[in-house]
Amino acid sequence: MANYLENIRPKISITQYRIALRVLIETFKGIKQAGIVNIFIIGTMAAILMIFGAIFRTSMSLSSLVNELGNVLEVSVYLKSSADPNQAAEQARQLSHVKRVKIIAKENSWENMRKDMQLPNIKNPLPDTLHVRVDSQKNIKSVADNLSKQSYVEDIRYAKDISEKIRVISDISHTATVIVLGIVGFLTMFIINNTIQLVIQSRKKEIEIMRLMGVSNWFIRLPYILQGSLYGMMATIIAIIPLSFLQGYIMQVHRFLGIPNSENSYWAMIFLLFVLSMIFGALGSLLSIKNKLKT
């Protein structure tokens, strides 16, 4: 029995290779039959992917900017005269989302103010202050609300308007990316769907002959699914060219503003474009196959 299995294993491998080769041949045959329509398909998809890539990359850059601005925002906590600054700072550090607490002694504040301004020789009217930095700009309001409830707090100040505007910008950026992603998916699948229908229509008799010969449904489907994925892959390759120029400009802006930006974000965008375009291309083909072939 073992000898028999060893003898048939090479035959099975050869058969599998032949099937894979045949699927690839059928895939490129479908692309060839689409003719000049291929240019329209790939060009249109490349334009769509380029728009999505530009918005997605800009959104990532904007998120870095928003986070950087949010990280430098602080909550100024003015302590009661009876409060111990060290004890108050320790209690503030225990609150959720608090990243750092710095004590500003009232003596230092008064001394700095006297250096900058001409003030009479009077008793120091300033309170001890805590500068509280949070882990994310979206948590500034909740941290400020929690601090205002503490017994050692006299008053609280922070850039509320700026914080709110930063949050709104971040939300709009993320929402726009999701909306554009949905539009990209729909348009890609729509284009691929119509193209594959044309190819199937031109090969209708050939497909019927394959069915009569007992060819499996997946053997008929797979070349069209691969064709849709190939369209997506080729469109992404074209879309990368203008996006590379955009990446250069974005990096210049980050260097000018002194905002850190990982080079990995660019490669993450490229990887995402390849994956999404190939998936949407395959799904568009699959929908077309189900409608036309009824397999």
Provide a descriptive summary of the structure in words.
The protein folds into two domains: 2-68 and 165-293, no CATH class; 74-158, Alpha-Beta Plaits (2-Layer Sandwich). Helices cover 75% and strands 8% of the residues. It has helices at 2-34, 37-72, 85-93, 106-116, 140-148, 160-202, 204-212, 217-257, 264-293, and strands at residues 74-79, 98-104, 129-134, 153-157. The protein has a four-stranded antiparallel beta sheet. Helix 1 crosses helix 8 and helix 6 packs parallel to helix 9 (264-293). The relative contact order is 0.16.
Q: How are helices and strands ordered from N to C?
A: HHEHEHEHEHHHH
Mean pLDDT: 75
**Helical segment tally?**
9
Q: In terms of per-residue confidence, which ranges show pLDDT below 50 for 5 or more consecutive residues? A: 1-9
Give the biggest sheet: 4 strands, antiparallel
Beginning-to-end CA distance, first to last residue: 38 Å
Q: How many domains?
A: 2
Tell me the structural class: alpha+beta
> Got a strand count?
4
Radius of gyration: 31 Å
Helix content: over 70%
Going across the major beta sheet, what is the strand order? 2-3-1-4
How does the SSE layout of this entry go?
Blueprint: H1 2-34, H2 37-72, E1 74-79, H3 85-93, E2 98-104, H4 106-116, E3 129-134, H5 140-148, E4 153-157, H6 160-202, H7 204-212, H8 217-257, H9 264-293
Antiparallel strand pairs: 1-3, 1-4, 2-3
Helix pairs in contact: 1-6, 1-8, 2-6, 2-8, 2-9, 6-9, 8-9
Key structural traits:
alpha+beta, Alpha-Beta Plaits, four-stranded antiparallel β-sheet, 9 helices, 295 residues, 2 domains, single chain, disordered N terminus
